[in-house]
Amino acid sequence: MGVYSTAEVVGFAGDAFTWNLDNYRYLWDPLYVDIFLRTYKLAAIGTLLTLLIGFPFAYYIARYARHKTLLLLLVIVPFWTSFLIRTYAWLILLDPEFPLYRALGIGEFEILYTEKAIYIGVVYNYLPLMVLPVYAALERMDWSLVEAAQDLGDSPFRAFRRVTLPLVLPGILAGSILVFIPLMGEFLIPYVLGGEKIFYVGNLIAQQFGEARDWPFGSAIAMVIVASMTVVLLLYSVLLSRQERYGG
Amino acid sequence: MGKRLLQAEVLLVFFFLYVPIAVVVVLAFNSSRRVLLWEGFSTKWFGIALRDQDIRNALETSVIVASLNAVVACVLGTLLALGLSRMRPWLRGPIDALAYMTLVTPEIVFAIAALIFFVQADQWLVGALGNGVAGLFGETSPLDLWGGRLTILVAHVVFNATVVALVVRARFVGMGQTLEEASFDLGAGPLSTFRQVTLPRLAPAILAGGLLAFTFSFDDFYTSFFVAGTEATTLPMFIFASLRFGVTPAITATATMIIGVSLVAIVIAYVVLRRTGSERGTATAVPGA
Fold this sequence. Notes:
The complex is a heterodimer.
Chain A: E1 8-10, E2 14-16, H1 22-26, H2 30-63, H3 68-80, H4 83-93, H5 99-104, H6 115-139, H7 143-151, H8 156-184, H9 188-193, H10 201-209, H11 215-247
Antiparallel strand pairs in A: 1-2
Chain B: H1 3-27, H2 44-51, H3 53-86, H4 89-104, H5 107-129, H6 149-175, H7 178-185, H8 190-219, H9 222-227, H10 235-242, H11 249-276, H12 280-288
C-alpha cells in the first residue's frame, strides 16, 4: 500500500508506479486537511465520550455488582451482533416518525443526518471496546488500598485521584487505543447516519477506491492513517512505561 | 455515596445498549409496509425476505464464506498459536505484536491493503514469470474467481486466523505442559501426543474461536465491501446497498435474522469457553478481541 501511494493513475487501464510523492502533496489541499481534522476530532471526542460513559459503568460493575460475569456478558452480546445492523437500528430510532416520539408529541427534532447522529452511533458501537479493558483493570484493583487512603484522611475524590486512577490508567489507555485507532478509519457510521453529507477520512478512502477510482491517492490517505496510528501507539507505549516506572 | 448514582448510570447504559436492537427486532414483526407505522403483528416480512432472490443469494454467499472461513481459520489459527508458544522469545515478540496490530488496525486500511495485494500480486507474479498473459488466471481478475467470493474468503481467513490464534493461545498457555510431558514419558510420540492429549484439551477453545470467526465473517462489512468481485454480495453488503432506499420492512426482517444467528453463535462460544476454561486468560481473550 505504501508503494501504491507513490503511483499515479494512467487512463483507465491501470496505475503506473512512478515513485513520486504528488499524492501526498495533494493532501495539503484545505479540503482534505479539513476532513482529516474532522476525523481526528471524531476519534478524540468519541474516545472521551466512551470513557466518560464507560468508566463509571465499569467501576460500578467491578466494585459493587453481584453478577459480574453476567453483566459483562450483557455488554459483550450487542457488541458481537453486526456492526451494520447496530447502526441501522439508529436510523430507525432517530427518525422523528418513530411511533414512540409521536405518541409523546416530540416529533420535532433533527438529529438524523447531522454530526449528532454520528456521535451517537460512534458511542453506541464503540462503548464495549472501552468498557472491557477498563473493567479488566478495575477488576484487579485492591479496594482496601482506597479504604486505607481514606482512613488516613484522604477525601473520596483525592483517594480516587491518587490511588484508583494511577492503578487503572493502563486499562484506560488500552481502551482509548481500541476506540481511537479504529475511529480514524470509520466510514460506515458517517455514511449511514450522516446521510453521505459529512465526510471523514474513511469516506474519502472509500470514494477513492469506489467512484473516483484513484487507488494511489486512496492509498496515500490510508498511509496517513497508518502513520497516525503509529504515533498513537508510540505515545501509548511511552505513557505506559512512564506509568509503570512511576506507579511500580 | 454516589453508589446509587452509579447504579442508575449502569441501568441507563444497558437501556442504551439494548433498546436499538430490541426496536429492530420488534419492528421486524410489523405487518405494515412502512417500518415506522405499526399496524399489527405479522411474520410475513420474514417470508418475503426469505423468498427474495437477491437476499437469498447474499445469504448463501455469506453462509458459505463464513463457514469455510471458520474451518480454515481454525486450522491456521491453531497452528499459529502452537507455533508461537514454541518459538524463541526474540522471534515471538514481533509476531505477537503483529497479531495484535491486526486487531487494532482500522479495518478499512486492512481491506484496501488486501485489495491492492490481490490485484498487484497477480500482476507482479505474471511479470516475473513473463508468460505474456494478462494475469495468473488468464484474463480473469483474481477478484472474480469463484464468483468473486475467493478474495473475500482469503481476506477473512487472514484476519480470523489471528483471532482464533489469540483465543487458542490463551487456553494453551493457561493449561500448562504437564500432561504433554506425562504423555511423552509414557512413550507417546509427538504426533499421538498432539492427537490424544493436546488437541482434545484445546478443542473447546478451537470451537469457540471458530464460532467467533464465523460471526466475524458473517457480520463483516468493510473487508467484503472492498475485496469482493463484482458478482459477490454478502448479506451486510446487500443491506448496505439497500440503505439507499431507506428503512424497509424486508431489510428489518433480514437484520433480525442476522441478529439471531450472531446471538446463537456468541452464546454457544461463551458457554463453551466458560464451561471448560476456568483460566482467566481464556475468558478475557474473547471480549478483548
